Amino acid sequence: MLLLSIIAIGICHAASLALNANGSFDEHGVCQCSLTLPDTTFPADRMEILEIENSKLTASVQQQIIKIESYQVTLTGYLQKLTNLTKRLEIEEMGRSYTELDFELLKLEIKELESLVVQLKASINGSNTLVESLFVQMQNISIIVNQLESYDKNNVLAVRREMAILRKHLEECKIGQVLPPNPPSFLGTCKHGGLANISKPFVVQLNWLGFSYKFGGWGKDSFTGAEQDIHWVAPLQTDGRIMNIMRLYPSYDDLLLYKRPTDKIFTKNLPYSQIDYTITGQGGGMIVFNNSIYSNCYNTRDICKYNLDTNAVERKVLTDATFNNRFSYSSSSWQDIDLASDEDGLWVIYSTEQNAGNIVISKLGSISLVVEKTWSTSQYKTSVTNAFMVCGVLYATRTLNTRKEEIFYMYDTKTNKEGQLSIILEKMMENVQSLSYNPNDHKLYMYNDGYLITYDLSFKTLSNMA
User: Fold this and answer.
1) Pairing verdict, β 242-243 and 245-249
2) Which of 328, 324, 389 is closest to 357 using CA atoms?
3) According to its record, what are the GO cellular component terms (predicted)?
4) Torsion from C-alpha of 409, 415, 417, 422, nearest 10 degrees
């Protein structure tokens, strides 16, 4: 504290101060008084502490601002997902029918969003109007989805099951006809005079990946006497080239309802999302024969054989075969090498430069993949939409219009004779991506812009050969 002495003459008081102070005269008659004033020393240490605290507070506020900005971006993403889910529900309300798988995927997405919103609420550690609103919307959508799923199960999926039963009954009726188009003794044999006619198309199903997967193939094991309950479906990637997945269904009913599938994914020891191009196929010329998948190996003229039981892969070069769209079919890219099978075994349909792009047929050994014999035709491959083999005879198709194909060309490997014919083949969609024949049921399997189609073939009797 400071002691202030004020010396004045006359009245003894501290005139310059806001308050009066009592004083006294000394022996010289001088008036003296003393005041106690506050300590005017600047508190630098306190100011330093204040600055440190202010700096900490500023940094904390900045962190919170960054968090809020991050939450805003996250919320924007969630709101976009919520908008997409809302649109999908609106489509459902307008009448589109979903499968059980669609609803399961939708519910998984909603659960994921709910979880993220809960995490966001916890991280904010307080009330936030936008987050609370988002959480309420998520709960409402979850309720609506459950209601729609219940509605769909009681209607669309029930109808699907009824259709499956009806289709099964129709198949039984066909088998039980008094005069079947092909006597049972024909099955698995060639005791007939060649292809006579083809039935109307029977639309089985859309492939499980949807409308965007327009290229691929499907069918059953075409080895004579093979298990016929199992159905395979192999959509190519949307580029129409890569075959890296095949789905197997244990029965026809499972195929209709997309139930109990087994996937064969060609990733070898790589992560799920990475394709192993050393075992990947390309084009829609794949086929299942004697429990193995045969296809054109990716980016090569090789034939790949993939065993469904052991996952073992074998490959063999198809000498002189052109590949990578050099001479593919007119309506299906990357199908330069087309595998086929019939009562006589395994075949490959392709082209060579030596044969000027015309179709070449080779008989393959199913075990060794060695070419046993080859036939060269005069039919230009790129003018053909697709082809298949029946009893050693090649049949080729061409487009008449968006709803009709024509089986117009044949080559008999037994007689080395080729010829023209005209059998009209109706189709559901415009483009034919693959055709494969199964000698076990005398059906033709078509992959038609993503749809799985079958046809019944009928044959001439030996006494009525043209």
Assistant:
1) unpaired
2) 328
3) extracellular space
4) -30
